[in-house]
Write the C-alpha cells for this entry.
Amino acid sequence: MSYLYRLFPPPVYLNFPAVGLDVSDRSIKFVEFAETGEGLRLKKFGKRELGSGIIVAGEIRKPEEFSSTLASILKPLGIKHIVAAMPEERAYISVVSLPNIPKKQAREVIELELPERIPLPAGETIFDFEFIPRQRIKDKDAVISEDNPEHSDALVYAFPRSLVEDYLEAYIKAGLIPVSFTMETVSLSRALMGVGKPSAPVMIVDFGKTRVSFVVVAEGLTRFSSTVGVAGEALDRAIAKTLNISLEEAEEVKKEKGMSKPPENKEIFDAVLPIVSAVADEIEKHILFWNTHAEHVHKSTPEISKVILSGGDANLTGLTEYLSRILKLPVELGNPWINVASFEEYIPEIKLNESLTFSAAIGLGLIAATGE
C-alpha cells in the first residue's frame, strides 16, 4: 500500500533526482537518497535554522524572506527538484464510504461530499485519497467472507487551497520545482513504519521544538493526526528558570541530564516533569479517542498497540521508560532507517539520536527515491 499523498503528481515519464524537504516553524531539513548497487544511501542532507516569525503554525507569514532563505541554502547545493511536506496543523483527514466504483468516479463522489466532511468552503480544498484495504475473514486457509464487500472506504486527506498555493509560489520563487506535496505525518510514517509489514494500530508521537504531533497509523495508512503546542522549548525554559541559566545552556543540560532518576537529578527532573506529564496526558487522551472512536478498521485489532517516539526531544533520557509506565503500553524510540537498510549493512552519516529530528525529511527522501 502506497504511503504517498500527492497533491500535484508528476507525469510518469519524468525520472529525476529529488530531495525530501521538511519545513517547520523553526528549521529547514533536507535529505536525498541515491540508489546504489548496495541499496539506498544518503547523498545529501542538512539542517538549517529558520528565522522566527517566517512560518507560524505552518502558515508562511514572510514569503519573500522564506523564499530567499531557501534559495540561499539549497541553490549552492544544486538542489532543484523537491518532494515537500505540507504542515500537519492545517491538514484534515476523513473517512468516506463509497459504493464499489472505479477510482476516477470515487474522486468525483468524494468531491461532492467534501463540504459535509471538511470545514472548508466549496472549491477551496485540495485533496487526495487512498482506499482503505479490506480485510478478509479466514478459517485456516479458506476465505469465508469479506467485510462489507458491497462498499469501499476511502481515507481522504485535504488542505486549504490557499495554503498549498502559498507554498508552491514560495518554492518556485526560490528556484525550486516541487515534484509532489506530501502530508507531513504521512512522511513520518513512511520513515518509521516498516513497509509491507501489517500491524495493529500504532501511535507516532513527534516531540519537536515548538509542538508535539500525534499520528495514528493503521492498515498502512495515516488515519489520524493532531498537534498541541507543548514541546521542547518549554523544557528548555523550565530548566533555564530553575537553574537561572540561558536557554542555550538549558538545552545542553536537558540533553545531558534529561529525566534521569533522582536524587542525583532531582532538580532537573522536577523542572521538566510538569511538561512531560502534560505530554503524557495528551497522548492518553488521543489514545482513548482513537480506541473508542476508530471507524473502519476492518476486522483488525482497533486499539493502539504501542507508541513510537520521534523528534529531537524524543531523545530525552528516561522519557520512554516514564511514558511506558504511565501509558501502560510499549513505548520505543523510532528508527527512521528501518526502510533504508539495517545497521549491519550500512551506518548512516546522521547519528541515530540526531536522526529522530530528520524523521519526516527521511520519509520524504524515501518517497522521492522510491516513488512510494
Remarks:
- The two ends are 9 Å apart (CA to CA).
- The chain is about 35% helix and 30% strand.
- The chain has a mean pLDDT of 86.
- The first helix runs from residue 63 to 74.
